[in-house]
């Protein structure tokens, strides 16, 4: 979501003459788009600001001004503190107000003191953002839903991103068409709780995520659809069926489970049990037998016993994930879990995380290894480190490296996988293989 927001911020600023730059050194404006989900992410902001302060001062000594801004969820959650701890910051704005940036920039450049805008405005920022989209490469993000009403007891998102809001279906489809026109072959629908999408359609009806996917799949030129992140308790039968019916919907689903113990899931307020999660996975795999899953895990949630942790390992072994994000529980200010008894020792969290990641990494490697010899459609969208290398994504989100001298950037090509590592696959173009066989 932050990547998407950053792209849109760049689009808002483009009419003012700003262009994205790949270094902060000498920049007229630097915007830090921040994350508040874990303590480490939030603390990073202050060390980065310290570094930028030096650059800002060096520019000032040269008679130039660097406007320094902080946005994202740290801005939302602790905007006042950012301004206090880093008084050289010019603007702090939350993730819901960046459509007002031109006005904020004007005020900041008039040197009228620090700007703070962390409202949850009545108007939707999406209505005020430019309609034209730019696409860097052939893959694009499209935010269709924002905010969260779930209040998992560990999580800051409902406080920083606000209440759940679904964009109208027509606006989403028109942005999708614009993206395809601008070169996107693959679109990923985004939302903190994307499967609870319920957007208003022009006839007054409400569209679910499944309906939106089916309609978007009709867009000519769009080859691949994905969505993230899903909340398991709200995956409905129509969305499961879409995995069977919609060929453009990729067979890869990020479905965070967090833990494999009912006691912990209850304390987390996740609204699903372990068995319900398992049953959901079974249904999804019946609909789409090659569906690959990824997930999020938290270890060391308050009160997590060794038996609870073992139950999480068991769930992982039974379900199998080809990819996963796993974290030590990080107490966040203002969330109920931060005040719970039985906080887990840091050393225990570290140990559990290492054990969990070893199991998950082995599953990733096994899945990648099983792809050797298979031919996969790969959307090539980046150059590799070595000359003549292109990198792309398989349907299962694996990074695939291909050596080719042909101009295949931003194309979907069939690649036969020749070797596999934990982080990527190596392959050769299928048509080259056919030539070799003939
Ligand atoms: N909406 C998504 C997740 C958004 S946050 C969902 O419900 O699954 C992304 C991930 O960060 C979460 O899935 C969780 O695993 C992790 N996370 C959130 N708060 C955390 C905390 N306080 N400590 C550690 N990990 C956390
Ligand atoms: Fe956070 Fe996701 Fe839970 Fe919402 S559903 S509170 S975003 S973990």
From TrEMBL:
Residues annotated as domain MTTase N-terminal: 1-110
Reaction catalyzed: N(6)-dimethylallyladenosine(37) in tRNA + (sulfur carrier)-SH + AH2 + 2 S-adenosyl-L-methionine = 2-methylsulfanyl-N(6)-dimethylallyladenosine(37) in tRNA + (sulfur carrier)-H + 5'-deoxyadenosine + L-methionine + A + S-adenosyl-L-homocysteine + 2 H(+)
TM spans (from-to): none
PANTHER family: CDK5 REGULATORY SUBUNIT-ASSOCIATED PROTEIN 1, MITOCHONDRIAL TRNA METHYLTHIOTRANSFERASE CDK5RAP1
GO cellular component, one term: cytosol
Function: Catalyzes the methylthiolation of N6-(dimethylallyl)adenosine (i(6)A), leading to the formation of 2-methylthio-N6-(dimethylallyl)adenosine (ms(2)i(6)A) at position 37 in tRNAs that read codons beginning with uridine.
Keywords: 4Fe-4S, Cytoplasm, Iron, Iron-sulfur, Metal-binding, S-adenosyl-L-methionine, Transferase, tRNA processing
GO molecular function, one term: metal ion binding
Binding, [4Fe-4S] cluster: 148, 152, 155
Localization in the cell: Cytoplasm
Protein known as: tRNA-2-methylthio-N(6)-dimethylallyladenosine synthase
Gene: miaB
Co-factor binding details: Binds 2 [4Fe-4S] clusters. One cluster is coordinated with 3 cysteines and an exchangeable S-adenosyl-L-methionine.
Major location category of this protein: cytoplasm
Subunit structure: Monomer.
E.C. designation(s): 2.8.4.3
Annotated Pfam families: Radical_SAM, TRAM, UPF0004
Domain Radical SAM core per the UniProt entry, residue ranges: 134-366
Domain TRAM: start-end pairs: 369-431
């Amino acid at each position: 979501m932050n990547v998407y927001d950053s792209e849109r911020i760049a689009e808002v600023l483009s009419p003012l003459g700003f262009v994205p730059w790949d270094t902060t050194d000498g920049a007229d404006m630097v915007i830090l788009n921040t994350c508040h989900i874990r303590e480490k992410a939030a603390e990073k902001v202050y060390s980065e600001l310290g570094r930028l302060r030096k650059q800002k001062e060096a520019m000032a000594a040269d008679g130039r001004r660097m406007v320094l801004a902080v946005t994202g969820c740290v801005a939302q959650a602790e905007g006042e503190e950012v301004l206090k701890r880093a008084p050289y910051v010019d603007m702090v704005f939350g993730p819901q107000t960046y459509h007002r940036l031109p006005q904020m920039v004007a005020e900041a450049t008039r040197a009228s003191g620090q700007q703070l805008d962390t409202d949850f405005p009545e108007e939707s920022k999406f209505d005020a953002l430019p309609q034209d989209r730019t696409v860097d490469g052939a893959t694009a993000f499209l935010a269709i839903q924002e905010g969260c009403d779930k209040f998992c007891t560990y999580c800051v998102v409902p406080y920083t991103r606000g209440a759940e809001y679904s964009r109208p279906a027509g606006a989403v489809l028109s942005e999708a068409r614009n993206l395809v026109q601008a070169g996107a072959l693959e679109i990923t629908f985004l939302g903190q709780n994307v499967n609870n999408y319920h957007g208003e359609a022009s006839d007054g009806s409400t569209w679910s995520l499944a309906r939106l996917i089916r309609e978007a799949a009709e867009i000519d030129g769009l080859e691949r659809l994905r969505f993230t992140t899903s909340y398991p308790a709200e995956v409905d039968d129509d969305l499961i069926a879409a995995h069977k019916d919609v060929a453009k919907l990729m067979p890869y689903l990020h479905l965070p489970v967090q833990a494999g113990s009912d006691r912990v899931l209850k304390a987390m307020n996740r609204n699903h049990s372990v068995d319900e999660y398992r049953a959901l996975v079974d249904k999804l795999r019946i609909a789409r037998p090659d569906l690959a899953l990824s997930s999020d895990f938290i270890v060391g949630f308050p009160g997590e016993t060794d038996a609870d942790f073992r139950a999480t390992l068991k769930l992982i072994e039974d379900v199998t994930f080809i990819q996963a994000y796993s974290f030590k529980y990080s107490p966040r200010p203002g969330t109920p879990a931060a005040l719970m008894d039985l906080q887990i020792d840091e050393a225990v969290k570290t140990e559990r995380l290492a054990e969990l990641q070893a199991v998950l990494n082995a599953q990733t490697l096994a899945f990648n290894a099983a792809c050797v010899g298979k031919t996969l459609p790969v959307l090539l969208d980046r150059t590799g480190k070595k000359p003549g290398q292109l990198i792309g994504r398989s349907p299962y989100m694996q990074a695939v490296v291909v050596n080719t001298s042909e101009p295949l950037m931003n194309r979907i090509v069939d690649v036969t996988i020749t070797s596999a590592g934990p982080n990527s696959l190596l392959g050769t173009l299928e048509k080259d293989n056919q030539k070799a066989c003939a």
